[in-house]
Design a protein that fits this description.
Blueprint: E1 7-17, H1 23-34, E2 37-42, E3 48-55, H2 56-68, E4 74-82, E5 91-93
Parallel strand pairs: 2-5
Antiparallel strand pairs: 1-3, 1-4, 2-3
Helix pairs in contact: 1-2
């Protein structure tokens, strides 16, 4: 990324039917397609937690993809909050 592109970081909690349906892996693939970095993990309360960072318009497009959801999943709510970029270079499923 060049220095003149704004780097945006967002923490996301995805609620709904999002565990046991491949949501984390589809999230990772969507992040790769959008060219953003970060991580995704399942939470004990049934939600999915995501940290995403990258060029602002790419992060925004990634968030739109999450709002639409993936086959087999149902996103009932997406909670987002600004975060601090961690300098990540790729997107991973973490446990």
């Amino acid at each position: 990324m060049s220095g003149d592109q704004y780097l945006k970081a967002v923490d996301v909690v995805v609620r709904g039917h999002v565990q046991g349906v491949g949501f984390r892996y589809r999230t990772m693939w969507a992040a790769d397609e959008q060219g953003v970095a970060g991580w995704v993990r399942n939470e004990y309360d049934g939600s999915v937690k995501i940290h995403v960072e990258g060029v602002e318009h790419r992060v925004d497009m990634f968030l739109q993809t999450l709002r639409r959801g993936f086959p087999g999943a149902h996103v009932s709510r997406l909670e987002t909050s600004r975060s601090t970029p961690e300098g990540l270079r790729d997107f991973k499923v973490v446990y």
